Amino acid sequence: METRPGPWRITFDTNPDDCNLSCIMCEDHSPYSTTRQDRIANRIPKRRMDIDLIKRILSETKGSSLREIVPSTMGEPLVYKHFEEILKLCQQHHIRLNLTTNGTFPRKGVDAWARLIIPVASDVKISWNGASKTTQESIMLGTQWEKVLNNVQRFIAIRDELFQLNNHYCQVTLQLTFLETNVHELADIVQLGIRLGVDRIKGHHLWAHFDEIKHLSMRRNSDSIARWNQAVIQAEAIASTQRLPNGKLIKLENIYLLEDNAVQDLIPGGECPFLGKEAWIATDGRFSPCCAPDKERRKLGDFGSLANKTLVEIWNSPEYQALCKNYMQHEVCKGCNMRKAPINPCKTAPKSLSLEIL
């Protein structure tokens, strides 16, 4: 049976204003961000999605190609008061959960959350930004190295236990932002992931939201790119020779060599992995085409709101279809950190380039 058009994955911005950490690179919760102060000064309530919006969208997408949903990747989704309802909705609609969490497992603790999340999840990405206590805690302000390290160990142990019982495997990923302050530990992060039994190390280059962190970008000049490339070579050497406890090799994503012109363009000729494939829904229902910082993706156009339109209507609209075809006319897309190298079926992809988008 032919499926109706639409995204294969939807990210719902459930609660971007709720987080128990203050990571320095975070658009909303960094000490350098004015989001909180501006919201309070203007007496604007915290952004929190109505669970009925999620229920309606999932009902409307029955019979479509939707396979996964992602609760907020800005803020900490496990703080969202309706998170357990999201897990039930995944079961009800036979779709998987793809979760990004900061590793603190607030409210219930790691054991309880693991047993609720793992049976319905395809991938759990745990934010991770160092191989040492000093580095991790200096980037993810408010985290506690020993506690989150133990949380990852417990989560993976429970994942392996449940896999033996129900044969459903939930991938576990350490996800980081590539920074001048953690690039020297990139290889050690890979090694740590292997020791813990993590399936994948994934990351992305810095979106420098604030002047105070621009000097942390690994794309800012040829010297920083050279340091990045050396770190990549070391990380790949470990990933290709040291095996996980299950005998497999750990996967690296977005950890690849850069050309000198990556200052302007991360991957010349690179393609958007999101347009025409995924959707982002803001707390108020506004449709967003990608995961770029909110101020940036608003520059791509106004495509309407799920508050008064269906997802199919927006997906098939002339405005969205035009963006899918002509996105490289936008400066936001030209400088995007997320574009991927195109797959050439006649050529083998370079070893250093991972093409996964999950």
Q: Can you walk through the features of this model?
A:
This protein is of the alpha/beta class. It is built from twelve helices and eleven strands. The protein has helices at residues 35-41, 51-60, 83-93, 110-117, 133-139, 145-166, 186-196, 222-239, 294-297, 311-315, 318-326, 331-334, and strands at residues 9-12, 22-23, 68-71, 96-101, 121-127, 140-141, 171-178, 200-205, 251-253, 278-281, 287-288. The strands form two sheets. The protein has a nine-stranded mixed beta sheet with strand order 9-8-7-5-4-3-1-10-11, covered by helices on one side. Strands 2-6 form a two-stranded antiparallel sheet. Helix 4 links the parallel strand 4 and strand 5. Mean pLDDT is 92; it is low at 344-358.
Helix content: 25-40%
The shape is globular
Order of helices and strands: EEHHEHEHEHEHEHEHEEEHHHH
Give the overall average pLDDT. 92
β-strand percent reads: 5-15%
Number of strands: 11
Secondary structure tally, helices = 12
Measured between the Cα atoms of the first and last residue, the distance is 25 Å
Largest sheet: 9 strands, mixed
- Taking all Cα atoms into account, the compactness measure Rg is 20 Å
* Stretches with pLDDT under 50, minimum 5 residues: 344-358
